[in-house]
Amino acid sequence: MIINSNKSQILDFLVDAANVKGDCDAVYFPKTAQEISEILIEANKKKTKVTIAGNGTGLTGGRVPQSGIVISMAKFNDFEIDESRKIAKVEAGVLLSEIKSKVEEKNLFYPPDPTENNCFLGGTIATNASGAKSFKYGPTRNFINSIEIVLPNGEIHKISRGEIFAVDGMLKIGDFQIKLPKIQMPKVKHAAGFYIKKDMDLIDLFIGSEGTLGIITEAEIRLIEKPENYFSAVLFFDDEVKSLEFVAEVREKSIRNRNFDDEINALAIEYFDFFALQFLKIEFPKIKNHHKAAVWVEQEINSANEEILTEKWLEIIEHFEADIENSWIATDAKTRREFQDFRHAVSWKISEYITRKNFRKVGTDTAVPNDKFVEFYNYSRSLVESQNIHFVAYGHFGNSHLHLNMLPENEVEFTKSKEIYKQICQKAVDFGGTISAEHGVGKLKREYFELMFSDEEIREMAKIKKLLDKNLILNFGNIFSERFFN
Ligand SMILES: Cc1cc2nc3c(=O)[nH]c(=O)nc-3n(C[C@H](O)[C@H](O)[C@H](O)COP(=O)(O)OP(=O)(O)OC[C@H]3O[C@@H](n4cnc5c(N)ncnc54)[C@H](O)[C@@H]3O)c2cc1C
Fold first, then answer.
1. What integer pLDDT is reported at residue 332 of this predicted model?
2. Is 193 in the pocket of ligand 1 (CB under 6 A)?
3. How high is the mean pLDDT of the chain?
4. Phi first, then psi: what are they for 104, rounded to 5°?
5. CB under 8 Å to 282, separation ≥6 — which residues?
6. Suppose 171 and one of 26, 141, 178, 345 were both cysteines; which one would form an S-S bond, judging by CB atoms 3.0 to 4.6 Å apart?
7. How are the residues of the chain apportioned to helix, strand and coil, as percentages rounded to the nearest 5?
8. Mutate to test the pocket of ligand 1, among 127, 150, 347 (most ligand atoms within 8 A of CB)
9. This prediction's pTM
10. Is the CB of 191 under 6 A from ligand 1?
């Protein structure tokens, strides 16, 4: 096994896409679950902290070590597709971009799409990643049939969906009896803390646990048939209110029409505010100055419903007065890919901006119930505007999920931005929403996680961590502040 302790060669493992920075003694590159097990057994003996590294696209500092060693999943590259059963067995270090292209060659499709495809499958399972398409398909969890996981004590387990469920508030894995906390999860897209539900499936405890409960080495993923074609359009609006009304109408129609093939039934509703458009103008000069907002919508179509659906989309687009003449409607796969690049560019440029300014990302990942969304959005924006901080707002508005990214120019603005961020998180919680809909808590959002759940509830979750990881070696510092283990 390769072990690299040359600091100048492991710098990439000491940072993530949120520009959180850390330190470690060495990076290990195992190739098998057995090798990981041996590393963990040794680490327990020496009480060495172990941090798991996917491909570093995370946005919460989750993979950034504070000390000890890092286990890179980069050598877990095996990949097998079973076309007839529409599944694939994929090791944790396979890139999402590779999964997508390989399954599409077989006319199959893997829906989870966290905008950034340069991540490893294991990272997406550990964070239960979502993205644009989760409006229709839900998060990564919905496509994971089974996982192989190495527990912090070195035990290797295969967990298949549908095999082990909680009974009387207890879950069992190996000799461990896990007591589930009595927690009410918000009824919105949510990725903060452990997934806890009465009668839950064991696999769901590990999906989204941000590497705090074990190391995922492999998964069986569920595939669906590749859609024949898409209606895909980036629509520009001169009136922001109309753009938000359009979002609300498409959202409502889509939820109502989930089972109908010839009705408006979007798979994604993505939003860009005026400042996001200005931020993207250099790379996308076709954006006009009078455009106050844009909405990217997509729906699967086929030769039978293409005509009727295009008609229905054009009708609703006209009704809400989008600038049709200057909007972009994809007629081929290449143009549709350009829309994906357009969406990716906004998140990517923010990561690039904060790295250049040497700040940590101050971008919300909040979701609220649909009926509270416009009020929440207006509240969040006016709060930032009142403090004269530059920002861009965009997000997965189908899921009432807002990424409002503040762009501080200096330390004073950075401090102010963090205060505003906390107020926005508090508002989301007050509205029955979440402080993190998809990125997770990691090390960056622990303070906000504590706005969502009481100390007692968090302590109950932390007990699960302590039960499985008695020496607190694995991904320590993620999700829980140290005080919850005292
Ligand atoms: C431009 C941009 C846009 C993004 N947009 C979205 C979006 O729309 N939706 C979304 O959900 N995310 C988004 N992300 C976040 C990111 O892509 C996801 O969080 C991704 O799933 C992380 O995968 P990774 O391999 O890079 O993991 P890393 O960043 O390396 O790690 C993430 C976390 O997972 C843990 N981990 C990694 N591998 C394993 C494993 N095998 N077993 C156990 N724990 C593990 C790490 O320790 C860490 O806590 C975006 C990121 C960028 C840079």
1. 86
2. no
3. 96
4. -70, -30
5. none
6. 178
7. 35, 25, 40
8. 127
9. 0.95
10. no
Q: Which residue has the least CA distance to atom 44 on ligand 1?
A: 211
User: Residues 96-110: pLDDT tens digits?
Assistant: 999 999 999 999 999
pLDDT at residue 486 tops 90: no
- Does residue 441 line the site of ligand 1, with CB under 6 A? no
Which residue has better confidence, 375 or 338? Answer: 375
Block residue for tokens 């290797």: 156
- The angle at the Cα of 17, spanning 298 to 475, to the nearest 5 degrees, equals 110
Domains and CATH numbers, the chain: 1-225+448-473 (3.30.465.10), 229-430 (3.40.462.10)
Instruction: Answer whether 115 contacts ligand 1 (Cβ < 6 A).
Output: yes
Q: Please, which residues bridge with residue 261 across strands?
A: none
Instruction: State in Å: Cα 56 to ligand 1 middle.
Output: 7
Q: Measured from the CA of 140, which atom of ligand 1 is nearest?
A: 11
CA 174 / ligand 1 centre spacing (Å): 28
Cα torsion angle, 372, 375, 380, 381, sign: positive
How far apart are alpha carbons 226 and 125 in whole angstroms? 22
Q: Is the CB of 58 under 6 A from ligand 1?
A: yes
pLDDT of res. 351: 86
Which among 67, 185, 72 is positioned nearest to 128, based on CA atoms? 185
pLDDT band at 388 (very low <50, low <70, confident <90, very high): very high
Give the CB-side neighbour count of residue 72, counting CA atoms within 13 A.
20
The pLDDT value given to residue 355: 87
Q: What confidence tens digit (pLDDT) does each residue in 51-77 have?
A: 999 999 999 999 999 999 999 999 999
Q: Which atom of ligand 1 lies closest to the CA of 53?
A: 30
**Closest atom of ligand 1 relative to the 348 alpha carbon:** 1
Question: What is the pLDDT at residue 360?
Answer: 84
From 10, 21, 57, 91, give the residue whose CB has the most ligand 1 atoms within 8 Å, as the site to mutate: 57
Query: Could you report the per-residue pLDDT of 261-277, keeping only the tens digit for each?
Result: 899 999 999 999 999 99
The alpha carbon of residue 114 and the mean position of all alpha carbons in its chain are separated, in whole angstroms, by 6
**HSE of 439 in the Cβ direction (CA atoms, 13 Å)?**
35
With a cut of 90, say whether residue 159 has pLDDT above it. yes
Could you give the percent of the chain with pLDDT greater than 90? 92
